[in-house]
């Protein structure tokens, strides 16, 4: 329903903010990681996850789209609700959490308040393959730019081409022409694939 809010921070605390968007103040729960990213800002953009329960509609905000995706993956696991998901994201950086899940580090996840051994194992079991497939690039903010060959490769893979074959073709193109735009590189690759 909501993708993000961009506005003035009317109030900030380590656990929540009130963000003024065109005269409307939204109470948004945040993680400590998000707080560390926005604490010096007056205006900010928060990626929003709306959680609807029988008795409440609660907004959770994140400094990056990657953190929001990780939060939504975490709360998709049985036994982990939005507050526990926020607690997990407050305990470590999103990169550290994703790394712990992908590498099966039960002990690190178990140290988080509210996570016992069974929940830690379930979290790893349910999310390990999913997060491996997404890769660490999923945590990167879309604002961070990829190189032109990386963008072209991503586009070709999304179009359904084999990653190894597309990479080989792009490397061949780069040997002959180095100053191409992403669009031109994709067009040349499509002719050769």
Automatic annotation (TrEMBL):
SMART domains: HhH1 (SM00278)
Cellular compartments per GO CC: cytoplasm; Holliday junction helicase complex; Holliday junction resolvase complex
Any one Gene Ontology molecular-function term assigned to this protein's record: four-way junction DNA binding
CDD domains in alphabetical order: UBA_RuvA_C
Domain Helix-hairpin-helix DNA-binding motif class span(s) in chain numbering: 72-91, 107-126
One Pfam family recorded for the sequence: RuvA_C
Source domain of life: Bacteria
Gene3D superfamilies on file: 5' to 3' exonuclease, C-terminal subdomain, DNA helicase RuvA subunit, C-terminal domain, Nucleic acid-binding proteins
BP GO annotations: DNA recombination; DNA repair
Compartment(s): Cytoplasm
Assigned keywords, A-Z: ATP-binding, Cytoplasm, DNA damage, DNA recombination, DNA repair, DNA-binding, Helicase, Hydrolase, Nucleotide-binding
Annotated region (Domain III), positions in chain: 150-193
Major location (coarse): cytoplasm
Domain notes: Has three domains with a flexible linker between the domains II and III and assumes an 'L' shape. Domain III is highly mobile and contacts RuvB.
Family label: Belongs to the RuvA family.
HAMAP family: DNA_HJ_migration_RuvA
Subunit record text: Homotetramer. Forms an RuvA(8)-RuvB(12)-Holliday junction (HJ) complex. HJ DNA is sandwiched between 2 RuvA tetramers; dsDNA enters through RuvA and exits via RuvB. An RuvB hexamer assembles on each DNA strand where it exits the tetramer. Each RuvB hexamer is contacted by two RuvA subunits (via domain III) on 2 adjacent RuvB subunits; this complex drives branch migration. In the full resolvosome a probable DNA-RuvA(4)-RuvB(12)-RuvC(2) complex forms which resolves the HJ.
Function as written in the Swiss-Prot or TrEMBL entry: The RuvA-RuvB-RuvC complex processes Holliday junction (HJ) DNA during genetic recombination and DNA repair, while the RuvA-RuvB complex plays an important role in the rescue of blocked DNA replication forks via replication fork reversal (RFR). RuvA specifically binds to HJ cruciform DNA, conferring on it an open structure. The RuvB hexamer acts as an ATP-dependent pump, pulling dsDNA into and through the RuvAB complex. HJ branch migration allows RuvC to scan DNA until it finds its consensus sequence, where it cleaves and resolves the cruciform DNA.
UniProt-recorded name of the protein: Holliday junction branch migration complex subunit RuvA
Species, as recorded: Sphingobacterium siyangense
